[in-house]
Design a protein that fits this description.
This protein is mainly alpha-helical. Helices cover 70% and strands 0% of the residues. The chain folds into 2 domains: 140 residues, no CATH class; 133 residues, no CATH class. Helix 3 runs parallel beside helix 7 and helix 7 packs antiparallel against helix 8. The longest helix is centred in the middle third of the chain and has 29 residues. It is globular, with a radius of gyration of 20 Å.
């Protein structure tokens, strides 16, 4: 057991940093930096096993929250791997290449290395709910933990359905160049990101039952910022507008950006949520 939480945090940071370094080297070799997305997701499963095995918390609770992080991380990593492995580099990273290539290839690759390691840093920070729970030695279950599991399950199922619907849409050759606007994608332009955020709310609620659990509330707040303003909605919509143009603009006009909601009727100018 590792009794010092800072030591456990440092071990976790070192492990995921090495994983991201290896994936950066793979990206260099394959000329495809999309692998960062697989690593970011899988790293949560790695940290889940590490913390549950090494932290001194109540084992049933520790392994339950580790299972939540592990299932979530591995499911997302597998889903992303089916889109990334053997495929051309995703549009977001192609655009980053263009933006960062002005300083030369060495500078561009160095920026990508920093980008990969920043994702490792995010892994460590966002794993705080996991760490706090696995440090809790009290052998008593709390209602907040049950509520957290319920919210997590809604998020996991919703995200899985959204990903499955989009994958099925893309597999149909007749949909090439079209916008997926059926199923959950009719109610939100980014239902996968919404349910991903719900998963992080579940983690935070679960952690509230543990000492210092309020710290975990920072995670869904930070995740919401990244999903909306950084690597999620913003980057995805910019790429969709570049590739689909007016077709995507019409989709934007009638469909909620994030929270699933009824499509806007023609002529209704109110912004969807």
């Amino acid at each position: 057991m590792v009794q010092n939480p800072w030591a456990l945090l440092a071990i976790g940071a070192l492990v995921v940093a090495v994983i991201m370094l290896a994936l950066w080297l793979l990206g260099l070799a394959r000329n495809n930096f999309s692998y960062v997305d697989i690593g970011w997701s899988a790293n949560f499963a790695v940290l889940a096993v590490l913390y549950a095995a090494c932290a001194p918390g109540y084992a049933p609770r520790s392994w339950l929250v580790a299972a939540m992080f592990g299932v979530h991380g591995l499911r997302l990593a597998w889903h992303l791997a089916t889109r990334i492995v053997g495929q051309p580099e995703e549009g977001r990273y192609v655009q980053l290449r263009r933006d960062w290539a002005r300083g030369g290839r060495v500078s561009m690759n160095a920026k990508f290395l920093l980008f990969f390691e920043f994702q490792a840093l995010l892994n460590v920070f966002l794993s705080l709910p996991l760490l706090l729970v696995t440090l809790d030695p009290i052998p008593v279950w709390h209602g907040l933990e049950l509520l957290g599991v319920a919210i997590f399950m809604v998020g996991l199922v919703g995200e899985s359905i959204a990903d499955s619907q989009l994958a099925a849409f893309k597999r149909n050759p007749a949909n090439k160049g079209a916008v997926c606007d059926s199923g959950l994608w009719r109610l939100s332009r980014h239902p996968n990101y919404f349910f991903e955020w719900l998963i992080w709310i579940g983690y935070a609620v679960f952690a509230l039952a543990s000492p210092h659990g309020w710290i975990a509330l920072a995670c869904p707040i930070l995740m919401l910022h990244f999903l909306i303003n950084v690597t999620g909605v913003k980057a995805t919509e910019e790429q969709a507008l570049r590739s689909k143009g007016d077709l995507y603009r019409r989709y934007q006009a009638r469909t909620s950006v994030f929270v699933p909601w009824f499509p806007r009727r023609a002529g209704n100018q109110a912004d969807p949520p």
